[in-house]
């Protein structure tokens, strides 16, 4: 069985987002980076499926040179190898990202055979386009189910539970399929030290796709106004309890 | 020129309609339940055909899970760009728009270069304006002609929600714990206070990652977005991804030993101190008064 997962490098922004001077990006000078929790669950599911069924797992990312760190993170969780679609760090829109991923997937499949499942996050953490996985599925002519909280193999099909307002809808689709997942699908393992060591020597192939002009073109970013509320102190320690109860009364919840 | 909207009759759809009217007249509507049970590729196929027949200037939907999913399929099928979760749009070539990033923690100004803008509108961000009601499209003839491939992905069953006490999405009060709670067992004092208040228990991602609470309790960008009257955050630092889940909260009370924690600066009310003392004291005070 062959499984792949697509992940995106994003900054860990902490308590306050600072922008670069030209307001076109987040100022990441003092920030760490990660993949989205949704995508981490996609990676974990890929690893579990290969552990249970044998085969080959591949992680793909389109991003700057440093995005190899996120490929290594995924390989530390157990993915076998990585494909890095290297960019100069500029923003790619969802359409262009999907096209580049499709080319890389097609090339890998030509050499190694078809992926039974390709995992995506339901949406990326930063741009939240809600589209890359679906676009890849259409281009490859494969079934796509989105927003999944549970995935179970059933022979040549996969049973999928999609989170909806009142419970979950169930879909059963044939393989090969493209699945977009949400955090909560599983509880990703913590990467072990040997896992991290092994990840360093796992193969990563690099391609450099050409960036087309984006049709959804980012002009600038802004932090929404009115984020800092003016906090009223109700005191400190246990002595604040009566004031808290007064507040709950006033709010009509007690 | 006419405009097309995918609607489910909700407020979120009426917000999308409000922005759709700026792109043309009249607005035609295809309903989310045109194909039942839900089959997203079919809806996308129908939207594409209707948009072509009407020569629609733009296609709109609410930025709900379903709205975004169907519109992305339409975008893929039609080979067009899609702008998801917009809060403002101005027609033109290119169209100018503002959309949400990072679950609403950032706004993006963007240009959409497209012969037919495909736009979803972020729920709760636009005030609904009255105007001419959309004209329902008779989809029967498109439904009949659906390709089998477009029915491959189709909801075939439903699993009811697990009965797990008060639901986060509808709770009037939420008592939420973060890493500061310290352990799985540490949540006993959070649960006790929540029980007294008829509140739901929430938590941060640090807590779900540690396995102290199930992910269904997580509040935030990749958890649940909540809208209680009062949100009580105990030992949560207030990372932007946690705050992204709190946009709908009426009042936020933060309990934290660090008065400089971002949540203490972004709350309406604060108590500085060790939650292991403060939370039981609140519980005791409520008991004393009732
Ligand atoms: C793409 C992405 C998506 C994410 N989505 C989410 C999400 O949906 N929800 C979410 O919550 N996080 C999310 N995160 C993670 C987020 O960035 C933070 O890491 C997380 O919210 C931190 O959890 P915390 O506040 O409990 O822990 P910490 O940041 O470690 O904060 C603990 C706080 O507890 C206080 N404290 C410690 N001991 C005590 C005590 N005894 N009494 C009182 N206070 C005490 C400390 O002062 C501190 O402020 C996401 C991250 C990324 C990158
Ligand atoms: N640059 C990228 N490299 C690899 N995968 C990506 C990239 N951007 C988006 N994806 C994948 O597509 C999903 C949806 O992204 P989006 O359409 O931007 O919301 C993400 O969760 C990732 O799994």
How would you characterize the overall build of this protein?
The complex is a heterodimer of chains A (254) and B (290). With 254 residues, chain A is α/β, with parallel strands linked by helices. In chain A, 29% of the residues lie in helices and 30% in strands. Chain A has one domain: 3-Layer(aba) Sandwich (Rossmann fold), CATH 3.40.50. Chain A contains six helices and 13 strands. The mean pLDDT of chain A is 96. By secondary structure, chain B is of the alpha/beta class. Chain B has nine helices and 14 strands. Chain B starts with a strand and ends with a helix. Classes of the chains: A alpha/beta (254), B alpha/beta (290). Chains A and B meet through helix 3, helix 4, strand 7, strand 8 and strand 9 of A and helix 3, strand 4, strand 6, strand 9 and helix 6 of B. Strand 13 of chain A pairs parallel with strand 14 of chain B, so a sheet runs across the interface. The structure holds flavin-adenine dinucleotide (FAD) and adenosine monophosphate. The site of adenosine monophosphate has 23 residues of chain A, from helix 1, strand 4, helix 3, strand 6 and helix 4.
């Amino acid at each position: 069985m062959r499984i792949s997962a697509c992940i995106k490098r994003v900054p860990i922004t902490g308590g306050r987002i600072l922008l670069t001077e030209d307001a076109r990006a987040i100022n990441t000078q003092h920030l760490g980076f990660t993949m989205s929790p949704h995508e981490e669950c996609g990676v974990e599911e890929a690893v579990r499926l290969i552990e249970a069924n044998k085969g080959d797992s591949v992680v793909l990312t389109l991003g700057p040179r440093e995005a190899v760190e996120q490929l290594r993170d995924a390989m530390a969780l157990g993915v076998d190898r990585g494909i890095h679609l290297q960019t100069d760090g500029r923003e790619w829109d969802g359409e262009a990202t999907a096209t580049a991923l499709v080319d890389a997937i097609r090339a890998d499949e030509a050499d190694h055979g078809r992926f039974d499942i390709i995992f995506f996050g339901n949406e990326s953490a930063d741009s939240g386009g809600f589209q890359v996985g679906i676009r890849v599925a259409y281009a490859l002519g494969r079934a796509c189910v989105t927003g999944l909280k549970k995935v179970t193999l059933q022979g040549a099909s996969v049973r999928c539970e999609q989170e909806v307002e009142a419970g979950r809808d169930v879909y059963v689709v044939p393989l090969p399929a493209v699945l977009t997942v949400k955090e909560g699908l599983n509880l990703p393992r913590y990467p072990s030290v040997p896992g991290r060591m092994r990840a360093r020597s796992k193969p990563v192939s690099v391609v450099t796709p050409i960036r087309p002009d984006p049709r959804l073109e980012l002009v600038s970013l802004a932090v929404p106004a009115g984020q800092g509320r003016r906090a009223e102190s109700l005191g400190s320690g246990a002595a604040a309890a009566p004031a808290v109860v007064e507040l709950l009364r006033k709010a009509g919840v007690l | 020129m006419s405009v097309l909207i995918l609607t489910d009759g909700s407020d979120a759809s009426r917000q999308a309609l409000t922005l759709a009217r700026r792109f043309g007249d009249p607005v035609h509507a295809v309903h989310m339940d045109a194909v039942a049970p839900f089959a997203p590729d079919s809806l996308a196929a129908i939207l594409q055909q209707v948009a072509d027949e009407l020569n629609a200037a733009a296609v709109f939907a609410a930025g709900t899970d379903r709205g975004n999913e169907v519109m992305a399929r339409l975008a893929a099928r039609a080979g067009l760009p899609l702008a998801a979760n917009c809060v403002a749009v101005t027609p033109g070539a290119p169209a100018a728009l503002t959309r949400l990033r990072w679950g609403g923690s950032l706004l993006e100004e963007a240009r959409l270069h497209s012969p037919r803008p495909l736009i979803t509108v972020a729920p709760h961000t636009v005030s609904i304006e009255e105007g001419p009601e959309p004209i329902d499209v008779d989809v029967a003839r498109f439904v009949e002609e659906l390709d089998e491939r477009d029915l491959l992905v189709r909801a075939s069953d439903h699993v009811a929600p697990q009965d797990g006490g008060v639901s986060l999405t509808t709770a009037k009060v939420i008592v939420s714990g973060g890493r500061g709670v310290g352990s799985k067992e540490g949540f006993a004092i959070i649960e006790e206070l929540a029980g007294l208040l008829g509140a739901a228990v929430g938590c941060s991602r640090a807590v779900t990652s540690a396995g102290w609470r199930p992910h269904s309790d997580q509040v935030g960008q990749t958890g649940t977005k909540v809208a209680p009257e009062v949100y009580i955050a105990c030992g949560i630092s207030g990372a932007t991804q946690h705050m992204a889940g709190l946009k709908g909260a009426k009042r936020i009370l933060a309990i934290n030993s660090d008065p400089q924690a971002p949540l203490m600066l972004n709350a309406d009310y604060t108590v500085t101190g060790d939650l292991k003392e403060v939370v039981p004291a609140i519980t005791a005070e409520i008991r004393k008064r009732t």
